[in-house]
Automatic annotation (TrEMBL):
This is Rop guanine nucleotide exchange factor 12-like. Belongs to the D-isomer specific 2-hydroxyacid dehydrogenase family. GyaR subfamily. Signal peptide: none annotated. Keywords: Glycolate pathway, NAD, NADP, Oxidoreductase, Photorespiration. Residues 22-312 form the D-isomer specific 2-hydroxyacid dehydrogenase catalytic domain. The keyword Ribosomal protein does not apply.
């Protein structure tokens, strides 16, 4: 397969890069000085694109690659891929579901604990020597808090299961009620936010879910409420979130994702009721390796004309 051109859209993971390099003719898009020139010269050899949560395959890239057969994403989220364009052109698309579910759900619970129990802030208290001058402030109990989840897919369910172990009543919003699920369903995100203590964003990013957490939702969650976002930055109207936190209209937030990564609104840096992470939901050695194996497995299956392991399109 070493004559098959594979374009990696951005740096992702060194193991994935090595494995792609071993098997295919690998092009690293981020090292290319003139992208248009590069695409024009290599358009006849690139048959696959590997994208992720930061860079994928938009309509322009798909149009520029007439021999493109497959886009294999090193992510479960598909928001950086123009799925309609791929469908129209008969280009296959795969992602990496399941293998990262546990890690992302673990991180969501970690963020809930970190915000309510002020784990990062109290760690800073010890490191700065402030403990010697007095005990740390009391924090907020997590066990038993009402957890509301936007999007009850694989990751949402894994978060619910974990929160149940902390005796948290679970409620959710999704486009339609899931008849087989016993958690309380709210047909609007505002209603869900008004009835929970912790609101978690765990749905895919689409046109419909862009800014699904807006000013009304934030106000409904209220000054004691906590927002956890392990989905995508654009799920949340970020300027609204920042002003609500600064004005204490929202109790706190645990954020793994931001609207304009890696840029994070600096107003958040001085707040002790927020925990800010650099998009690390799936970021364990084990999971990133499993994601890479799935990307390779899908590409190999495609070029050997076998069924794809995790097809989307
Ligand atoms: C990654 C993700 O952060 O799966 C997703 O949708 O956001 C992530 O797992 C990313 O794609 C890794 O490069």
């Amino acid at each position: 397969m070493d004559s098959i051109g594979v374009l990696m859209a951005c740096p992702m993971n060194s193991y994935l890069e090595q494995q792609l390099d071993k098997r295919f003719k690998l092009f690293r898009f981020w090292t290319v000085p003139d992208k248009s020139l590069f695409l024009a010269s290599n358009k006849d050899s690139i048959q696959a694109v590997v994208g992720n949560a930061s860079a994928g395959a938009d309509a322009e890239l798909v149009e520029a690659l007439p021999k493109l057969e497959i886009v294999a994403s090193f992510s479960v989220g598909l928001d950086k891929i123009d799925l309609a364009k791929c469908k129209e052109k008969g280009i296959r698309v795969t992602n990496t579901p399941d293998v990262l579910t546990e890690d992302v759900a673990d991180l969501a619970i970690g963020l809930m604990l970190a915000v309510l129990r002020k784990l990062c802030e109290s760690d800073r208290y010890v490191r700065s020597g402030k403990w010697k001058k007095g005990d740390y402030v009391l924090t907020t109990k997590f066990t038993g808090k009402e957890v509301g989840i936007i999007g009850l897919g694989r990751i949402g369910m894994a978060i619910a299961k974990r929160a149940e172990a902390f005796s948290c009543p679970i409620s959710y919003y999704s486009r339609t009620k899931k008849p087989e699920i016993n958690y309380k369903y709210y047909p609007s995100v505002v209603e869900l936010a008004a009835h929970c203590d912790i609101l978690v964003v765990a749905c895919p990013l689409t046109k419909e879910t862009h800014h699904i957490v807006n000013r009304d939702v934030i106000n409904a969650l209220g000054p004691k409420g906590v927002l956890i976002n392990i989905g995508r930055g654009p799920h949340v109207d970020e300027p609204e979130l920042v002003s609500a936190l600064v004005e204490h209209r929202l109790g706190g937030a645990g954020l793994d994702v931001f609207e304009n990564e890696p840029y994070v609104p600096e107003e958040l840096f001085g707040l002790d009721n927020v925990v800010l992470l650099p998009h690390v939901g799936s970021g364990t050695v084990e999971t990133r390796e499993a994601m890479a194996d799935l990307v390779i497995g899908n590409l190999e299956a495609h070029f050997q004309k076998k069924p794809l392991l995790t097809p989307v399109v």
